[in-house]
Amino acid sequence: MASDSPPLRDGVITPGVSQGIRPLAERRSRWRLVLGEDHGLCASLSQIEQRRDRMLEFLYGREGCGRNSGTENSGPRGADLSDSVLSVPDWLNQIHELFPKNTIERLEKDAIERYKIDEVVTNPEVLARAEPNVTLLEAVLRTKHLMNQDVLAVARQLVRRVVAQLMEKLAITIRQPFCGTRIRRRSFVKAAKNFDWRTTIRRNLANWDRDRKKLGLQTPYFLTRTRRRIDRWQFIIVVDQSGSMVSSVIHSAVTASIFRTLPSIKTHLIAFDTNVIDLTADCEDPVETLMKVQLGGGTDIGQAMAYASSLIENPRRTIIVLITDFFEGAPIHNLLRITRSLKESGVHLLGLAALDNKAEPNYDRETAGHLVDLGMHVGAMTPGELANWLAEKIG
After folding, report:
1. pLDDT bucket at 290, cuts 50 / 70 / 90
2. Which of 93, 184, 279, 328 has fewest C-beta within 10 Å?
């Protein structure tokens, strides 16, 4: 086996280690993923294994004679490379979903150094020409640690353009539920902006002139422009910055920035892995927030929730939104203890397995179930749905 064989998830493929204790079908599928289909090894692959195989073929299929032929940089194969429709950002995003951290690092290294796939992380001209979109933004956030300063400067501008698109799209949706409702009360200020045309027409119908087909307005009516004030609440977003949560991290940064503009809400943004980062000071600029996020690493949800609890000013007027996949890396009893304490103090708790436009959750249902038992609402929402939920809680 060549030393540069494509690696896979720990426990899925470990070339060079005896696998005699594994079932024959499982061993075949593992070696099939290593060697590729060109070597004639027939094996039935599961759905997730097929996705991994596709990602490996996109990269190592460029050898020309199979994944482990040893032929360097012979260019991509033509007729049998059906996966060439994948873009580099798509490929980067999918390997972060399918493989563990050490494997991702190996794949990224091979892509850049061995196969010269450098569109995203090493070539500022290519990056500057790229069409800004959320997929490319996710790829940039996942690989910015590989960029030199010149590329990083271009990447920052791309991030700013995509964030501006998201801000424009989401701002009205998020702010609208918090604008307050108009008080329908008579006003004696006879200004055009206060004119109540519905009431005026209805109450002057007796003045309708059938012959002239005109309505005489004897008494005009006006309404006050006053809106009900929403009492100030504290809103704490606690977002998991593991690699699988990148879309939710993006939407959390944008959502928090929009909420910061609402006078009725004091917003905090906390990111965490095994450490906790308070991003509240950068909350008004989601670009700075996203450029400071470090995707990947372990997960200590309990520690993050404990930090959030230290920020609370009035528990009964506080909402904590925990955005995570609920895969807790620390002892779960710490998370359950702090959740129980927060709920008993009167804090409103919402757990989101996803916060993006698709709201497609993938999470640890057992841990989420324990939190539901303690009184946390758990689900998946778009930013607009989150705004409506918060507005309902605030009343």
Report:
1. very high
2. 184
